[in-house]
Amino acid sequence: MQAWAGCAITAPPVQAAPRATYEGVPVPPQFHDALARVMRVARLPAGVRVELVGSHRVHSASVHASGTIRLSSRLWREGHALDAEEAAAVIAHEVAHRNCRT
Ligand SMILES: [Zn+2]
């Protein structure tokens, strides 16, 4: 019979991965308006502050535990820009992901 070793209480703390750095780009107003609309009904955990960061280096949208929503500049690329309702759907989707992490 093999005993389960578990995690020794004296184990060193897990080191967080180095924070990735991204070049932020301005996020268009329809996304900030969408965030304001969503936050009127969102129920985020205490201490979570949502902010929007645009990036040319990501392909869609994602949310961090801190509440930062990273948005690809593809979402407002000329000729393919999301409208206000689509932007609100993206923001609401990411806020829901953040809420599910709690
Ligand atoms: Zn998703």
Automatic annotation (TrEMBL):
Q: Where is the Peptidase M48 domain?
A: 30-97
The similarity comment for this entry is:
Belongs to the peptidase M48 family.
Q: How is the cofactor bound?
A: Binds 1 zinc ion per subunit.
Name of the protein: Peptidase M48 domain-containing protein
Q: Which Pfam families match?
A: Peptidase_M48
Which organism's genome codes for this protein? Ramlibacter terrae
InterPro entries the UniProt entry points to = Peptidase_M48
Gene3D superfamilies given in the database record: Metalloproteases ('zincins'), catalytic domain
